[in-house]
Design brief:
Strand content: 5-15%
Shape: globular
CATH superfamily: NAD(P)-binding Rossmann-like Domain
Mean pLDDT: 96
Distance between the termini: 33 Å
Oligomer: single chain
Strand order of the largest sheet: 3-2-1-4-5-6-7
Number of helices: 8
Length: 250
């Protein structure tokens, strides 16, 4: 079934690669007009080139001026968003660590991009949607739900904060027809996690904790994102949708 997002306009952060690119491309295939945003404008342009009618915009989510400018550029081009996927983020492998060994600069950078960046993306999404309603989807993580990220204190904390942010915003704006939900992918092999995927032992260890027995792929996440962007999820807000191969059941 295609065309589930006809008439929708979506903005996806981190759309230059990985999950963000896959979701933005699927949204376009479902009939949405899509704004591909990324800190790397060339990557966003390359991704958007595969989707007729798509727009590429530079957006550094950790910089409020850049976030506001990105939304303004989309609106000026006639892309009045009613779906936003706050997906962009970082994970500082080799630097993030258990709390006693964690450098403050690593903590601050991770929180700045992941949590503050998601806050800024959602803040300006809500401003753009007020008076019309819409759907905001944030990308969470198993590390924000259980002990999966015990060696990644900053990343795990940032994702737990994102889960809490989504619930608070969902409650605050439900009366205005703005829905906010969290999608939790499991271990998904994208450029973000090459430090794991290129290490055979580390990869085997994490896959062993996935009941379905394989790593996730970006395309595993796109279906639930389409659902949450569409009218099919009209009564869903403040919820967490886990697409993790069963990882958080353990």
């Amino acid at each position: 079934m295609r065309g589930r997002l006809e008439g929708r306009t979506a903005l996806v952060t981190g759309a230059g690669s990985g999950i963000g690119r896959r979701v933005a491309t699927r949204f376009a295939a479902e009939g949405a007009r899509v704004v591909f945003t990324d800190r790397d404008l060339d990557a966003a342009r390359q991704a958007a080139a595969d989707c007729p009618g798509a727009l590429a915009v530079a957006m550094d989510i950790a910089d409020e001026g850049a976030v506001a400018a990105g939304y303004a550029a989309a609106a000026t081009a006639g892309y009045d968003v009613d779906v936003v996927v706050a997906n962009a983020g970082i994970q500082l492998f080799g630097a993030d660590a258990p709390v006693a060994d964690l450098d403050l600069a690593v903590w601050r950078r991770t929180i700045e991009v992941n949590l503050t960046g998601t806050f800024l993306t959602v803040k300006h999404a809500v401003r753009a949607m007020r008076g019309r309603g819409g759907s905001v989807i944030v990308t969470g993580s198993p590390t924000g739900l259980n002990g999966e990220g015990r060696d990644f204190t900053a990343y795990s904390s940032s994702k737990a904060g994102i889960h809490g942010l989504a619930r608070a915003v969902a409650a605050a704006y439900a009366g205005e027809g703005i829905r906010v939900n969290t999608v939790v992918p499991g271990y998904t092999e994208t450029p973000l996690v090459t430090a794991i995927s290129e290490d055979a032992a580390d990869r085997a260890a994490i896959v062993s904790r996935i009941p379905l027995g394989r790593p996730g792929r970006p395309e595993d996440v796109e279906g639930v994102m389409v659902f949450l962007a569409s009218d099919e999820s009209d009564f869903a807000t403040g919820a967490i949708f886990r697409v993790d191969g069963g990882m958080t059941t353990l």
